[in-house]
Amino acid sequence: MKRAYLEKMPLAQAQARWFSALEQAGCFDARSETIPTAEAFERITAVAVHALRPVPHVRAAAMDGIAVRADQTAGARLDQPLVLRKDVDFVQVDTGDPISQGFDAVIMLEDLDFPSPGTAECRKAAFPGQNVRPVGEDFPKGQTILPARTRLSPEAIAACLGSGNLALEVIRRPKVFVLPTGAELVSPLEPIPAGKYPETNTALFAGYLKRWQALPTMHPLLEDDYAQIRRAIESSLQEHDLLLVNAGTSKGREDFTTSIIEELGQLIVHGVSMHPGHPLVLGLAQGKPIVGVPGYPVATWVVLDQFVLPFLERYYGCALQPRTTVVARLARRVHSPLGEVEFVRVRLEQTEEGWIAHPLAGKASTLSSLIHADGLLVVPEELGGCAQGELVEVRLLK
Amino acid sequence: MKRAYLEKMPLAQAQARWFSALEQAGCFDARSETIPTAEAFERITAVAVHALRPVPHVRAAAMDGIAVRADQTAGARLDQPLVLRKDVDFVQVDTGDPISQGFDAVIMLEDLDFPSPGTAECRKAAFPGQNVRPVGEDFPKGQTILPARTRLSPEAIAACLGSGNLALEVIRRPKVFVLPTGAELVSPLEPIPAGKYPETNTALFAGYLKRWQALPTMHPLLEDDYAQIRRAIESSLQEHDLLLVNAGTSKGREDFTTSIIEELGQLIVHGVSMHPGHPLVLGLAQGKPIVGVPGYPVATWVVLDQFVLPFLERYYGCALQPRTTVVARLARRVHSPLGEVEFVRVRLEQTEEGWIAHPLAGKASTLSSLIHADGLLVVPEELGGCAQGELVEVRLLK
Description:
Chain A is elongated. By secondary structure, chain A is α+β, with helices and mostly antiparallel strands. Chain A contains seven helices and 28 strands. The first copy, chain A, is 19% helix and 29% strand. The two termini of chain A are 43 Å apart.
């Protein structure tokens, strides 16, 4: 009976169905919080940020020199220099110094002589505003500094602070619950008993979730005990924005995730026509998305890439990872079953004729194929593969 | 006398001279530390990491099914199925389960019938190793998992943990001292008195240094007091790997950085023929690099990009930031003085004819020109600019 669920839904359909259910359930209605700007680096704005004061808020010297009244320098010429008196006709200023009331131009040091202490000789008339940064040159008051849903770069933080925004309303980081399961597994930090394997997917989840601005909660490893797993999921629904159960998604004896999702909520997808990552489970319970993530590390990675990252980007309303592609020539033929999206890890080689993509041999079970990959070639379901020498689009992974 | 130092050294020569002095002074002899692998995400390996045990370290089922002795299934055919007894001729296994001693093949569920409890009917002979992950499939024992000087990705952390590397020798994070100076400045967190400006470059330094895996120490803002600034630099030399003084690099009254560097050590460069960022100071004191960073935010950014990032990459021995470029058509002419490298911020527009680069108008004083920039066009010193419609290489900044 359980077997019937493991279908082969096209990837795009699985994504559309799940994200549309999540949208309806309000999973992307991100909440915000207000935090000190100095602590907001890499966070994402919830609302647009405007200049609370102009930047600069007073006029400033744009050069090292002297501040003068422009009209007072009228007529100064190389052959008819004008002598100005310190602290009467001019004040000395460095770049960045405010221009006092009354003065309206700066003559740079290079254009001056200082014939005696307390005097400056000017050889060219200054014009009003010369070498002066006007008020609001960088940002006029009220100007939008950043739109909503923008990741805060160092220069954005600096501009917010400079314009009087000492606190910022940012999107609350989504809390992601990660539950590793499997009787054959044991924490890699403990001695490995006979017949057990170290559990290492937790490290994959932790790293990518941190990189994508989520807050992971790592549950300790659970054996394949239905009641325990169900209890752990049920008690974590309220506090989290996304739940990832790894693994327990296939058709084996101990694949509880689908049943638990059905008991607690709604099973939306079980089985996606992609490789690796086919036995994927997507559900929704008490308004919270649950993903049953297949256990092979490359399958886990594909689900992170194809479902978790897009979930987080929809939640935040902005891109969290660049998706740069290059066109490369395929070094050898790649096979891919018709009707299935194949994620091929490739090594890239730069040659005089352009990029060459070398498909990596590793199976879904091998972390090495991910570590050695420079890029990803996605073979769509309508193709049975790609020919040797074919030009393909490769997404950069490094 | 001080003015004589502000020269116009070509950018490449300034970089070569400073980095070569730093190399000789041992500034790139990075020290390492050993930390728990689970805490090493994004850190950089100091030495190569090898598999301390094979991965997997015992044979594992690659499919859900039953583990059998392959020779015992010889002769099984569709028309002549073989009945196997549970726990005698086979054991049931899920993907990832270890294969017990004696068994050497896995028959997948799909190829079996279960005519009665405790029996399985096999319709095809299995071969030794069928659907079995051999020992060391991912990493044989002793295999290099990562070379030295590699940034630790999530999959790298997972592979290290899986292969028994519970601690890793990583490069110690460089400590970078940041000293903001300027009598005209005040912390942006305090009320801004008349005639003062909020100091915001600290936020630029903090963000980029964190992004590039350095540990910044932010000194409180100092006024232009020679003795105070000298004391702050001198007392920080021993504890830090790089010192950044901002600003105090031009020819104004209060440009102390050059004098202090000369007193404490060696002034290597003062003035680089680039814009923004010309009045840059590069020195070395007690074996520690010191940079006098010009105060305009875009100048600060250029120095971070052209000197601080390459310093950190030499220290770490690996790239810390991707440098992806696109070829774009210039929307309007860009002027650049001959003999000076010009850093032009551009907005990129994707059209059917390819990328269009729109040069941004902002001066060196405007953070807005950095915030709005998608890319950077570097006009080399031998060119007086780039023509409208010219194809130029633009480095992506976002």
